[in-house]
Amino acid sequence: MKIFNLSKLFTITCCFLFLTTACDQQQPSKTVVQQPTEPTPASTTTLIRAGEFTQFLLDPHQVNDLQNTALLYDLYEGLVSYDIHGNIIPAIAQSWESKDQKVWLFHLRPEAKWSDGSPVTASDFVQSWQNLLTSKATLAKYLGFIALQNAEKILSDKLPATALGLQAIDEHTLQIQLDKANAHLPLMLAHIALMPTKKALYNGAYQLMEIDEQKIKLTANPYYWNKAHVSFQNVEYWRNNLSSTQIDWQLATNRTGTEIQLVPKLCSYYYELNPHHPTLQNVAVRQALISLISSQSAVANVAINGKASASLLPKSMLFGAYLNLPPAEQLLKQANINNQHPLHLNLSYDDSPANRQIAQNLARQFAQSDLIRVTSQAKTSQQWANEHIQQQFQLIRSGWCADYNDPSAFLNIFHSKSPDNLMHYHNPQIDQWLEQAMVETEAEKRQQLYQQVVDTLAQDAIILPLFQYYLPVYIAPNLAGYDLNNPTQIFYSKDLYRLVQ
Prior knowledge:
Layout: H1 9-15, E1 46-50, H2 66-75, E2 80-82, E3 88-90, E4 93-98, E5 103-108, H3 122-135, H4 141-145, H5 151-155, E6 166-170, E7 173-177, E8 206-211, E9 215-220, E10 234-238, E11 249-251, E12 260-273, H6 283-291, H7 295-298, E13 306-308, H8 328-334, E14 343-350, H9 353-366, E15 372-379, H10 381-390, E16 395-401, H11 408-411, H12 428-439, H13 443-460, E17 463-475, E18 479-480, E19 497-498
Parallel strand pairs: 1-10, 1-11, 14-15, 14-16
Antiparallel strand pairs: 2-3, 4-5, 5-7, 6-7, 8-9, 9-10, 11-17, 12-16, 12-17, 13-17, 18-19
Domain Solute-binding protein family: 88-419
Signal peptide: 1-24
Family: Belongs to the bacterial solute-binding protein 5 family.
């Protein structure tokens, strides 16, 4: 049985993960937008959002980029959603419960309706999730990721879609059955793949009004259960005229200026240290290597959309690990590395200007020790992936983007049975803590378990975190209703409003 089915596929689809890094300089981050000093005249009823859309997609099961994801979150709403800070809150489901953390009951709002006035029912979710599986769409694997009962077998054609662990108990009660207990399932249910669909209807704050090749117009859904919360009655998404002063919000922008903010992403950039390689089997050697590196120096003068960080987890998760290590030279000598027998080290990375420059910066820092001889090798994407999978590396450029806003989305990849544990790292104590955390319902105890995992990973010295990704966003200075420390990259139009004087 797969204990933790965490696939990078979903985040690659929506975030274009780590093969390239963007080239905007870092800007200071703000917490929440404040009253502007010089507000520009703008409509209080129409919000204009823009981006580099490949095309406009209206099917959440087929979404393939961040821009379309924002659009679809305006049109559809799932069992849960995020508040402006990135915390899970009730949406179509007004409450939920579970006795054993394996069978869950979600109670749907009677007032939740589709854009034609018909009720959103538990059967709508059953039909949508079954359709997602039978479609074989890329995002169908997310149902296996959340360990929904029989999802993996349905994806491999061993069972029909009707065998999915999903049942409409009645019109407003949805039962979800998992393959394994998970006390924190609701945290994972805001994903775009889990939005219910029903023909040409919408159950979100907005509905489709007009679409052409360059622009899509939405209007407020009169049947949305929380329509009183919606400020902008119309939302437009533009594919062209991206430098227009009319634009209010633009993700991943190439603009410059004081209106550009950096929004944190649930993505980390790091190097893996292969504990199975003969030269790195000794933990003292790995600890020495990590102690030589400053993440700030590693990314200095490198064009990245990110900020230096020595932590695997985003700053918003408030975890940190401190190691009080002896000097690197002492650790290396403990491992019988000396001037006559120096450590020969090779860094592997998939070739891009940013990856190349970071590797060069790392090589210079390692070379500060007379006991280390460093080379670095640029690889094609395919060569890099093959080396990673086959464990044919010492240090390799890596990274991770999480599918939901929780420490488990980062730490579960280090469970020995996770399919995303490409370095085949195995620490029985970490396995035990991760399994305990999955069923722990007390927040403080769960935090303690994850802190133990973070501390042990740091002690084992198998990853070298370098920076956290950030996303450049243009925001009109007269907009409010968002928190720039929200790491989910999900900013609903329904939460935004115009500041007026």
